[in-house]
Amino acid sequence: MMPKGLKLTKRSQDDSDRAAEALSKVELVITDCDGTLLYTDKTLGEPAKEAVRNLSAAGVRFTVASSRPGKGMRTIVDTLGIKTPFAAFNGGKLVDPAGWKTMNAHWLARDAAEIALESLARDGIDAWVFIDDQWYITNPAGEYVPLERRTVGYDAVVVKRFEDIDLGSVEKIVASTSNAVLLESKEAEFAGTLKGRATAMRSQSYYLDITHPLANKGEGIRELAKLAGVALENVAVLGDMQNDVAMFDVAGVSIVMGQASAQVQANATFVSSTNDEDGFAGGVNGLLAARKGEKVF
């Protein structure tokens, strides 16, 4: 039987033998954080911690890739004892936890940042600008400011206008609104107006991330695998949102959380339980069972 919470997606059912073989050969696991590794309340559960310890005991390397700034990942990295490089800003920045040194970074072109900010302001959507580990906002009463403060673990810097900061060194812009339909329309708009200059992808139903074209999780996974000396076919990734599909497309194995949309699930190899039902741990348990030669479906 497949370990609890892990089953083949429709995409993989026609080649189940290959999927099982790929799962058994994983040497590096890279996971999204919010909505995958973490519960919805942003806490890290004991099953996830145990799963990471079990990966280490099995000789499988582990790291994380998130839309968060590097500083906003510190608690996760320290708690799990991650020693290898990890990806922040959707892969736009690689960070070495030894000394918290930036290894590589991609900045938005100034004109792309200006176009995005002007469009968001025109539609009354709260925008946040991230430069290195600093978080800039113009509306401290924004609907999702308290959640982001709790997520990243530090306060934003309030500015009167974004023009007052250096828009030539922006690593990420976030559009935040509970109007999911409006956010989806902005994602479609930016696919045209920012084509070739930026990527706009939802990291949550209420967040739209705008980053450099190379600041995506697919490119981030490529770089992390290269640094680890692991072939992409031997990398497993876990995620839940549209911005995770880029890494699903390049990794040998992809495990999606059960709460992900049907569109996102269609791009993965396996589907696990929801993040709040310990889907991350379920995915890792399935992977480790396959490595032991156990029949997983």
From TrEMBL:
The protein's organism comes out as Caballeronia sordidicola (Burkholderia sordidicola)
Superkingdom, taxonomy of origin: Bacteria
Kindly indicate where the leader peptide sits in this chain. Answer: none
Q: Which Gene3D superfamilies match?
A: 3.30.1240.10, HAD superfamily/HAD-like
InterPro entries from the UniProt entry: Cof (IPR000150), HAD-like_sf (IPR036412), HAD-SF_hydro_IIB (IPR006379), HAD_sf (IPR023214)
Which Gene Ontology cellular component terms are annotated? cytosol
Q: Report the Pfam families cross-referenced here.
A: Hydrolase_3
Q: Quote the protein name from its UniProt record.
A: Cof-like hydrolase family protein
PANTHER family in UniProt: HAD SUPERFAMILY HYDROLASE-LIKE, TYPE 3, PHOSPHOSERINE PHOSPHATASE
Query: What keywords sit in the KW lines?
Result: Hydrolase
One of the record's GO molecular function terms:
phosphatase activity
Keyword Transcription regulation applies? no
